[in-house]
Amino acid sequence: MSLRSYIQDRPMPLVWAWKLTEKVLLLMRPLFERVGMERSSRIVKLPEELIKGALFNCQDCAQCVLHYSGMTCPMNCPKNLRNGPCGGVRLNGNCEVKPEMECVWVAAVRRAAKTPYAQEIYRLNPPVDWRLKGQASWVTFALGRDQVTTGSDTKMRDATESLKRNGQGGQEVSR
Ligand code: SF4
């Protein structure tokens, strides 16, 4: 087991770190608004990449859903699936595309149960807005540009609500 997997399989310290980061980022929101998303991202990106790259193998999608997925980055899925696994998960729980790798969502479900966000694994996340790729997710979160508003204390929201909030319509989803 890699050191990264070892840390992610014990996600509570990561959750505490996120809660602290979240508070700091929200305090910084007026500054980010003044400086602008792109310039703020250029400044924040390096520390974010160093930390989230090392801990989560972050792929820079800029719309972070880590705490909805058991502190497991869904963009490590070769198909970039953000709403659960595909139908190709092997019997041993590994990926059909990369047989040597555990399915991101198998790991996510296991880890989510160890966090306070276990229920959020059932959220329906909107598709990635690729126009944001490369921005700092800490900035897009603070500015509410991440589509999903990943704040851990916000109430659960489904994709339809996110689309409506962003003025993109959306039909009601029956559950
Ligand atoms: S910002 Fe996107 S790519 Fe990076 S850890 Fe979060 S979900 Fe994964």
What count of domains describes the coordinates? 1
Mean pLDDT: 86
Distance N terminus to C terminus? 37 Å
- Stretches where pLDDT is under 50 for at least 5 consecutive residues are 169-175
Derived structural class: mainly alpha
Helix-strand topology string: HHHHHHH
Overall geometry comes to: globular
Secondary structure: elements and pairs:
Blueprint: H1 3-8, H2 12-27, H3 29-35, H4 37-56, H5 104-112, H6 137-142, H7 159-165
This protein binds iron/sulfur cluster (SF4).
Describe the protein's architecture and organization.
The protein has 175 residues and is an all-alpha fold. It has one domain (3-75, 113-165). Helix content is 41%, strand content 0%. It contains seven helices and no strands. The chain has helices at residues 3-8, 12-27, 29-35, 37-56, 104-112, 137-142, 159-165. The longest helix is centred in the first third of the chain and has 20 residues, at 37-56. The chain is globular and about 50 Å long. Residues 52, 56, 58-62, 64-66, 73-75, 137 line the site of iron/sulfur cluster (SF4).
